[in-house]
Amino acid sequence: MKVGIDTFSCDSGRSGVGIYLMQLLKRIPPSSGASYELFGWEYDRFIFKESAPNFEFVPQCRMNGRFPNMAWHVFQYSKFVRKRAYSACFFPAAHKRLPYNSPCPTIGTVHDMARYWGTREKMDYVGSFLRYIFPNVLRRMDKIIAVSGFVKQELIDIANVRESRIEVVPNGIDTTKFYPRPKNESSIVLIQPFSFRQPYILYISRIEHPVKNHVRLIAAFNIFKDRTHYPYRLVCAGSDSIGAEKVKEAAIKSPYRTDIFFTGHFPSDSLPALYAGADMVVIPSLYEGFGLGVLEAMACGIPVACARAASLPETAEHAALYFDAEDPEDMADRMVTLATNHNIYRECRSLGLERVKAFSWDKCVERTLQIIQET
Questions:
Q1: The domain containing residue 91 runs over which residues?
Q2: What is the pLDDT of residues 302-320, one digit of tens each?
Q3: Do the beta carbons of residue 6 and residue 92 sit within 8 Å?
Q4: Cα–Cα dist 179/323, whole Å
């Protein structure tokens, strides 16, 4: 059996989807009952070769960009699959890019349905393709892996995918990389080329408004500082995305603007050290398909306060403090609690470390490969 793996829309391994694919490739055993082959952008050849040195990589779609790639999946994909004689194709980013038709069975992982999040007015920019055609494409898949029960329900409600075609397989967490580290005795956390003065509150996410909810986080940080007068800083790590200028404007208007830092894209290898230096992690996002940042923080032994929204309660369960994502006062209350109540702080840390044990990349990959082969 020969399986093709579509690496398009996996962001060269830099995003959550990219991490997912990297973890999968590293764990495919040599004698898995199937041979696997990667296809995608030419410039990704060596990115994914590091995780899968023995897999052949077939570069496709000579023109870069979203629309040429969509056209490739519509007009060239089927011909390519027949030529390569794939028994099946796996799409790690099925929520981003899929072919309309396939000459072989298709299996894909849906990490979120964020394109459909919010009001109809907000969704106008996605156009008729996403609103009408893409759900039909999802329904044509032979099997869909949802990363959470929340995403599974969205697939049923939004795309009308039959429940029997969806299986929930949660993401994992790499505990060889994310684990508790001793606190730095210095008041400065130095992670080249960055340096952060402790204590700080951390939020790791792309800077996107309104879905990632940075503006309300900044408002909550202002309230937190007014109440406590503690020397905390707010560190927002992530690349600029849609609406980033509104987030930066809110930071500039803050009376504590000198205590708010934006790092831009942060090197993934340095994330554990960034978590380790934080006093708490706050995740105010209005929408998350899984909540990988919750697990990363908990695995590092850092208490988490997060929004009671989307999949976050499913991921964190009883190991986090929750707030109303649309209420900065409520958000600030949880930040004050973690900063002032040492018993709750220690309890959240302990419960978080215990919760992380329920998630494993080994189990995730094992079940994913089983589904591919069964399909």
A1: 2-172+361-374
A2: 999 999 999 999 999 999 9
A3: yes
A4: 26
